[in-house]
Amino acid sequence: MSIALVILAAGKGTRMNSDLPKVLHPIANTPMLVHAMQAGSALSPARTVVVAGHGFDAVRTAANDFDEDVIVVEQKEQNGTAHAVDVCREALKGFDGDVIVLFGDTPFVTAETLTKMVAAKAENAVVVLGFETAEPGKYGRLIMSGNQLDRIVEFADASDEERAVTFCNSGVMLAHRDTLFSLIEEITPQNSQGEYYLTDVVELARQRGLGVTAVACDEGETLGVNSRLHLAEAEAVFQTNARKDLMELGVTLQQPETVMLSFDTVIGRDTIVEPNVYFGPGVTVESGTRIRAFSHLEGCHVSRGSLVGPYARLRPGAELSENVHVGNFVEIKNAEVGEGTKVNHLSYIGDATLGAGTNIGAGTITCNYDGVMKHHTTVGDNAFIGSNTMLVAPVTIGNEAMTGSGSVITKDVPEAALAIARAEQQTKPGVARKLFDILKKKKQKRASESK
Ligand code: UD1
Ligand code: CA
Hints:
By secondary structure, this protein is α/β, with parallel strands linked by helices. It folds into two domains: 221 residues, Spore Coat Polysaccharide Biosynthesis Protein SpsA, Chain A, CATH 3.90.550.10; 192 residues, 3 Solenoid (UDP N-Acetylglucosamine Acyltransferase, domain 1). The protein has nine helices and 35 strands. The strands form six sheets. Strands 13, 15, 16, 18, 19, 21, 22, 24, 26, 29 and 32 form an eleven-stranded parallel beta sheet that branches. The chain has a ten-stranded parallel beta sheet with strand order 12-14-17-20-23-25-27-30-33-35, with helices on one face. α2 links the parallel β4 and β5. The mean pLDDT is 97. Bound molecules: uridine-diphosphate-N-acetylglucosamine and calcium ion. Uridine-diphosphate-N-acetylglucosamine binds next to β1, α3 and β10.
């Protein structure tokens, strides 16, 4: 049976106290909506529909950035979860299969859980995802008889006896398109919140004699984000899981709780990550590298055998070949660094191509920006850039060329040449001693005057 995915994401998220629609708040540097879409994509849905309302344009953009085929429908007024599904009718026209409803603010449902639901669907018309919890709070309660789900009662409408139930509704629901839409037609907003509850589908289905069951998953999967506190908790859950996954893949995290990962961080086996390292989006690190403490990486690639940090910053477009060394207080942006090249201390390398086996001395800066435009610096293989060289781009340094320390290089340096561009040194014998004497006397005079 083919599957369509419906993701509800129209709510305002009042408790976030934010200008940004709730579902666009990031977890591990990608909107929580994308996490939900990614979870659903494991079922290879024939169609995906996102229901947006608050911040419609921004939500649509985020959804289509993830997958341009996603259909984004607008729910102008948020009249409840059943109404939100109802506005997908058009978008699901001509689709003959099962519909799985996910919430955009419940980002961590796993592919395995969704697959279990699909399996349970074989013998039931409706399948709901539930979870056992010690703190059921305001979640809807699942009222079971045997393995059949009788109904879902929202907290606001529940009796004390029902509130005592600890098996709760995650919000995820699976039913055939035709069943779902025909049941939704019968839903009325006769409840304490005056909303069309999707959860009423259950009782209505049972009244028709249809089979309804609940599949249980781990509480962590159904974590719903309603506040900044929940967002931080969701981030923590993601980070904990992602660190664990990396360690299982053979990455050493010396102090895992201090390493921040992104949704797409890739790190190869036998790489060692020291404490307090931040991986922004788009980072791939190959096997057998070492990322030393307090480094900040984003949008970059680190090849096998390289050594990064401590205190290194790799920005988008930093491409390190094998066995590269990037040391403390070095920033690299939009630059390729050739095999075995070293940039060990206090440098800025931006918009550049560095060859292999080259040494970049301490304090070297590629002056890539003239205030209006960016320019490129090229350094060849086996070159030696003296400490504190300013490479004023656009400029090219040839293979095996050298620059003298403190040079301001504004013209190309050909292969094997040495370029020195600094004021010539003057050495004046005995002058330092005289100068010291004068200064010491001045100091004494001042001290006696102030008495
Ligand atoms: C819902 C469930 C509750 C469940 C809980 C789990 C209903 C009636 N209740 O309650 O049983 O325990 O989720 O987190 O379904 N949305 C829309 N349009 C609307 C209303 C909601 O798109 O008109 C979206 C929201 O953006 C959100 C999701 O649906 O992503 C859930 O809505 P929310 O209002 O948060 O439902 P809860 O009260 O949490
Ligand atoms: Ca909610």
